[in-house]
Amino acid sequence: MRFSSDFANILTENEPLGPRTWFGLGGPARWMARPTGLTQLMELFRRCQQEEVPVYKLGQGANLLVNDDGVDGVVVQLNAPAFRGVDWNADARDPDIVRVSAGGGMDMNRLAREAVRRGFAGLECMGGIPGTLGGIIRMNAGGRFGQIADVVRAVTVVNAAGQLRTLTHEQVGFRYRHTDLGETIVCRATLELKREDPTRLRERFLEIWDYKRKSQPLADYSAGCVFKNPPNESAGGLIDRAGLKGCTVGGASVSTNHANFIVAKEGSTSRDVLSLIGLVRRKVAERFGVELELEIEIWNRRRAKKTLIRTEPRP
Ligand code: EPU
User: Fold this and answer.
1) Where are the beta strands (DSSP E) in 164-203?
2) Are 101 and 187 in contact (CB under 8 A)?
3) Which atom from ligand 1 is nearest to the alpha carbon of 227?
4) The pTM is what?
5) H or E stretch covering 315
6) Which residues pair with 100 in a beta bridge?
7) Is residue 186 within 8 Å of 133, Cβ to Cβ?
8) CA 80, 178, 65 angle in degrees (round to 5)?
9) 305 CA to middle of ligand 1, Å?
């Protein structure tokens, strides 16, 4: 049986990806899959590996640039209720600790707000960072106020072979804006939060939000910080000092508010953003001898196995 008909109830074909990313750019997905539960997700991954269909994992598209031709594979999104549930479990021995078990498709800001409302500290540092919990964990998102690794105790993933695995904090391999999660998809995670005075917590949460609102172009089409900070340096600072604020290619510009953001105007293309990324990298390398490393993820077109590309039924 053909791949697409086997998963017909959860697949759509040729779905535009631009509207699903914060840049608002990029071509369509050959297939988009929204599994309704774990068993289906495991089966989908197993079949994709068996039939060499490239798999792309989409959260909220907040840190992602899709190329203009789209992707020839399956884009998997865990937005079904089965992947968005949250359980708050008090620690049996320590009443000041709560273990939160949350689905990989859960919205990070909703989860952070709820933790603050309940008076549990540890997620307020994620205020204003968009994404699903799974996407946030996979890139160890964070900022000057903390990173998700600080509270993650365990992560349950489905690997490329379709097997379910639970990884400890150490096995996730958290580093600065990076983990070893590779080809896996995060289905669920256990976070450890600590009780704190809700009023103080709320104030801190609002302060973090306020700082972001003032220092970053949150209202524009962008994917957050484009580059990682080099050791002991600020990527935004380097780009700024290279005189690149406002530098434009087509419809894409280096933000005049925060130089590590590229903002895309209506009518721009992914190619514009990619050219501007190349230009910024060259200028910063020429000026300061620093090779900027990408923080955002870029999806290029990889080809699915030829036999799977046909949509018409066999003659
Ligand atoms: N700076 C400039 N010009 C600019 C931007 C920044 O000179 O255009 C200077 C600032 O004055 C400051 C320094 O660079 O002295 C650092 O700037 P900022 O405090 O804004 O922090 P950042 O290092 O640029 C990091 C994260 C952000 C996160 C903020 C605040 C990285 C690459 N960036 O930015 O994360 O929001 O701290 O918590 O780790 C993201 O990951 O998408 C992201 C935006």
Assistant:
1) 164-168, 185-195
2) no
3) 32
4) 0.93
5) none
6) 88, 191
7) yes
8) 60
9) 41
228 lines ligand 1 (CB under 6 A): yes
Best mutation site among 140, 225, 233 for ligand 1, i.e. most ligand atoms within 8 A of its Cβ?
Answer: 225
The C-alpha atoms of residue 56 and residue 32 are separated, in whole angstroms, by: 9
- pLDDT (tens, 9 = 90+) of the chain, 315 residues, equals 477 888 999 999 999 999 999 999 999 999 999 999 999 999 999 999 999 999 999 999 999 999 999 999 999 999 999 999 999 998 889 989 999 999 999 999 999 999 999 999 999 999 889 999 999 999 999 988 999 999 999 999 999 999 999 999 999 999 999 999 999 999 999 999 999 999 999 999 999 999 998 999 988 999 999 999 999 999 999 999 999 999 999 999 999 999 999 999 989 999 999 999 999 999 999 999 999 999 999 999 876 664 454 444 333
The residue assigned the tokens 């009518």 is 267
Lookup: tokens for 133:
């919990």
Distance (Å, whole) CA 172 – CA 178: 10
